[in-house]
Amino acid sequence: MPKLFMVRLISKNNSAAGMVSLVSVLLISVVGLAVAVSLLVFSAGQSQNDLLAYQLAQARAINDACLEQALVNIKNNPAFSGSYNLILDSGAGDYQVEQLAGGKITIKASAYVGSAVSRQQVLIDQLSSQINIVSWQPVADFN
Asked: Domain map of the chain by residue range?
């Protein structure tokens, strides 16, 4: 009879060791899954940031194109004024040229790509053989 008792004792120890192994594997799996989910969430957020940065760069390029087009039009015709649109495959832009007192000219340009917006304002104070740009700056909104 003592042999049966030993067999049962060994059987109970194996069962307990198996249970510890199972719980250990489950805990490691849960931790691994948590790490994997965290990495996926972080990478999705990073992708959104990368997309917005790319769209903002495109919006700035379209904005610069609007301002350059306005400057060319002003050089060709110093009395040039009004609002104009520039539509490209990647986005759209618009600009407004205003003739101010004293021969000054202001150009306000906005560009839109996806959810990104770029706005810039240029002030010109003298027109002669060359255009004298007083300021060329990004703005949050036009006054």
From this structure: 2-138
